Write the structure tokens for this entry.
Amino acid sequence: MEKLFSVLKRPSRLDDYGKEEPKSISWYFTSTRGAIKLLHAAGVTYTIIFCFLVCLSSVFLGLPLVFEDSPNALFIAQIFMVYIWICIESNFLLIRYRAQNSHVIQSSGVLPINRIGKSSLNDWRNANNSGRGENNGIPSSDWKKCSHCDFDVPPRARHCSICRTCVLKKDHHCFFTGCCVGFHNQRYFITFCVYGIVGGTWGLYNLGTYLSTFYYPILSLQIYNYFLPVCVVKTMLGYTSVVNFLLVFLFYLHITSTATSLYYFGWQMFIISRGQTSYECMKRKKVYAADFWSHMRSIFGRNWIIGFILPVPFIVNEGDGVHWDTHSKYS
């Protein structure tokens, strides 16, 4: 357990424990990498089930109370909630599906030429071999050799010990999606957060309406019944039904998940405005130059608004994840 918490705090330490491979079911409980895989499975399962429960509780419990006097508005609201759920789940799947496109080293041990192109690969190798002079502490060519992959990797690519590869413009490793957020799937992560905020906030209101009607009014002196210890005791003593207890627990999950989505969306927009990744921001490295909308197009593509309306995979972001313009003082 101590090793696990150490890895969660600094994933690069996972390399210190060797390349463990699954041997039996007990491996998942006794090895650090096995525990990481279990965390991934738990995070992915939680995300899929929780989003479904948010939609289910709103469509069949909350919305019928909110729109009880307007059947037409109820139908439209239910359809819209299902649409939000589809967008959340679709962006979640696209985060995972497009994650491998950002992997610099694939199973064959080469750059992902199918996404990059052989001509560009040769250009990058030539540029990389042209020299590594230093200027103000920044390499004139940001290519660097990864000590784990034993391969020269492009600028802004960083190694992920959990994914066992370098990731183009790696931002962070997400345990809820079970993969890294990098150049080719960052836009799906941000859109996922946006719909998480919208669906979570609306679902929170709908579920709160239901609980205020059939459990205890939230905005009253009886709000103490929503404190989990109180709710658990009352459920064990038979004063509260198991269903209401589960709905109260789901209410708490609404709050935490919506707040988490809001935090990640705010953080992502902050680093986009600065033209940084999370790592670069933490290291106070602001090397790559462009205006805000250039950063937006690099992530969302030119038709970025469509990606916020429909979770479509064919709208590609600008750039290749390898070439980056730097500030003049680093040129």
